[in-house]
Please model this.
Amino acid sequence: MIETNRIYNGDCLEIMKSWPDASVDMIFTDPPYGNKNLDGDLASSRVGVKGGRQKAAVAIKNDSVEDTARVLRGLFIEAARILKPTGVICCMTGGGGPGISFAHFMIEMDAHLSFFQAIIWDKSARGNGMGWRYRRNYEFVLVGFKKGGKLAWADDSVAVPNIVQTPPVANEDHPTQKPVDLMASFIRWHTQPGDIVVDPFCGSGSTLIAAERMGRKWIGVELDEAFYPVARERMDAELSQGKLL
Model:
């Protein structure tokens, strides 16, 4: 039996092993990208620079190239087991270059699941993005489903562009915080009310909040003890607000 509407503090690769086969409708997650966040990256070099970050962010666990490859492989192996035959996985990753981590994400996903499409999250509402020459202004959301299964789609009369324009949010609760509205869009397209949505790298809990608002059951896992209470606090506030309404 899988316990829903709960946030775990621990290693998702170990926790997911205890969940039954074919028990989850959707996984939406934002794992480490392998960018060694703020360890000599472009963002760290621009701390305090006009137009760049004004304060240093916190490093992300398992964000080295080697650790990311390990946890990503484990994620997709477990996803292939716990997803229902009509289940779907949406996995975020970086866009463009200069590294090719996004290509590794696609290849690894397709090794264990059926890769369906790379959706572009257009972040241009914030301005021109970061970088030189070609400025970074999008990320991918990789969509896949169980091999031999079928991609869940909530309403066959609906078709959406593969470029999603959702404004980004400030990194107030997590160094790579994503907007709740972004997760909500994919949850709306791929699930029905009452379905189970899982985020194994839930960070500050944005996926879980989106699922709760849309009447889905949810499960989150967060390894970092610094962010686990943040996710709990945000979800507690969301649930309290819901009761008031």
Observations:
- Helices lie at 12-15, 42-45, 65-82, 101-112, 180-190, 206-213, 228-244.
- The first strand starts at residue 6 and ends at 9.
- Strands lie at 6-9, 24-29, 83-94, 114-122, 138-145, 163-165, 196-199, 217-222.
- The two ends are 31 Å apart (CA to CA).
